[in-house]
Amino acid sequence: ADTTKCGTLNFAEIVSMYSRHLWHLRPSQTGPSKNMSEEELKAGDPEEFAKEVVQAMDIKGDERVSYPEFMAYSLGRRKHEVLLHLYDLSNGAAQSISPWLIGQKLEGVWHTGVVVYGKEYYYSKDTVYADAGDTSFGKPTRILHL
What we know:
Oligomer: single chain
Largest sheet: 5 strands, antiparallel
Shape: elongated
Radius of gyration: 23 Å
């Protein structure tokens, strides 16, 4: 399948695997994948199957599936969104005060929290967690998708 010998399969190579009936895997975003019968494979669209594979397994977002991504998926790992919440503890005051205090302009005084599985993890004397966006720091000033 890896015709370029680069350790990944691109979209066209995945379509080829389904077109030639070499793959019977039907991935799922949430639960276990299933193996399709020969009839299901013949009745389906190889491009749709390939889109499902890329959507389920492509972690890097490069429209390719690497061997580690394929194995992680096969072992039950699923993609989950991870966010970085940034809080300006100065509420914007750092921008106007910092040039006088330290001689250069700061955008903010930052505190961060990592959001995964709906919980926000952050450091506060110890590592703690809360519902995402519901911490004592208020609303995040910025949110970055990792």
